[in-house]
Amino acid sequence: MHMYTMLPFFTIALGVASIAAAYYVVKIKDLVYASVMLDVLASIIASMLALIGYGIVAAFQVLIYVGAAVMFIIITISMIGARGRETKEPFLGFITGTFLSIAIIIIVMGGGLFKLYARPGYVSPSQAAAGLLSHYFPVIVLIIIAQAATIIEAISISKRGEKK
Amino acid sequence: MMALDTLTGAVVMVVSSVIMGIGAYGVASSRSLFRQVLSIEVIFNGLLLLVLSLLSFNAIAATYFGILIISSVAAEIIVVVAIIVAYLRSTGSLSSDELEEERA
Prior knowledge:
The complex is a heterodimer of chains A (164) and B (104). Chain A is mainly alpha-helical and 164 residues long. Chain A is built from six helices and no strands. Chain A folds into two domains: 3-83, no CATH class; 124-164. The longest helix of chain A has 26 residues, at 55-80. The radius of gyration of chain A is 20 Å and the shape is globular. Chain B is mainly α and 104 residues long. Chain B has a single domain (2-103), classed as Helix Hairpins (Orthogonal Bundle). In chain B, helix 1 (2-29) runs antiparallel to helix 2 and helix 2 (33-54) packs antiparallel against helix 3. At the A-B interface, helix 1, helix 2, helix 3, helix 4 and helix 5 of A face helix 1, helix 2 and helix 3 of B.
């Protein structure tokens, strides 16, 4: 059997795994384990992105999101420690989550948006880099400035609450 | 091949909708600021999957979109976590209920 015909089955398997990981993120009591499950979820999403044809975005997801951003959350929560009792309103959450899911499924399936999906063509890293530098150079400069400002902002905010 | 693509697209979009619903459940049900941030990140992951599958007719634009959005979200996480750490240091609490009470 050709691997391409197996694509929907791999997608279903990864989809089930990602739903389970998302469930554990919101359900596990320990926040450190919950953030580790977020890391797992982001890794599974990256594999799904690679599977449906976005290899470069998947690499970015693993390098920047999984490797830096979520690791930052894990380390912060580990250092601070989960304090206090966590109050929950499961009924309100259930209503909100179900409503959002059903609304999006109705829009996507009822509106026929799922037919828009066609396996994307191959985008080489050099092609993506050349396009980014030629068409989106101002955006890249803005993002670099924003990220530098963000780091300074984060350090100053964290310092502000420090008890002397 | 077309039918396989349609099936794959349908599966990806339904999975992303369910993931976003689970994230919304986490945001609405919990009163812990860190749990709410984690749930918002779950919503982001579902949304990224949904938008990239919808933009699949233009692979290059979708790739640029994905790269720029992931970079922005990585910066956003750092600021939000820094704000929560500052709030925790000043009040000693991680509850969003107490945040509302303080504001009132």
